[in-house]
Amino acid sequence: MSDFLRGALSGTPADREAKKQQLMEGVRNQVALQSAQTLINKITDNCFEKCVTKPGTSLGGSEERCLGQCMERYMEAFTVVSRAYTNRIAKERQSQLLNTGGVALH
Amino acid sequence: MSAQTDEALEKELASFLEQETAKSQVQSSIHTLTDMCWKKCVTGSIGARFARSEEGCLVNCVDRFLDSSLFIIQKVEEARKQAGGQ
Known about the structure:
The structure holds 2 protein chains of 2 kinds.
Chain A: H1 3-8, H2 13-51, H3 61-100
Helix pairs in contact in A: 2-3
Chain B: H1 6-41, H2 52-83
Helix pairs in contact in B: 1-2
């Protein structure tokens, strides 16, 4: 085991278990945080592009309304794309399994 | 609680990290696809709801992108086989 892990996960078995859970929780949080940050950046880019076509001296009411709706639409698009992507990947994996398994179903 | 050996712990953490890396890569692909398909499909003004056609376009966009990806891999594979004289 690396020195880093040996140091980070030292102590009694209960200690080690708690530290392990903490480490895993930290990694999960980092992954989620990174995805959330990417989403916010993409929303800002795409909705600024769409809603603030001629930047004035301040954001107008209609621009703010557009940004609000755009944000909701973008998150909806993310959900739609996410579902389509995972469905497709599952389908590809299944057909690959059938092919490599040498099972002729058709 | 039974003590976990260093080796078992290391294995568990390695497979956990592999899973999280894979999850992060899938998320990143979905972000790229959403960005790309948003630009292609959401071309009108922003409404309170998606138009039916926009949602359909997003789904088609994902599937056609993956078709394109598979198609290109197949072409490269063919070219590689021909070059190899097999």
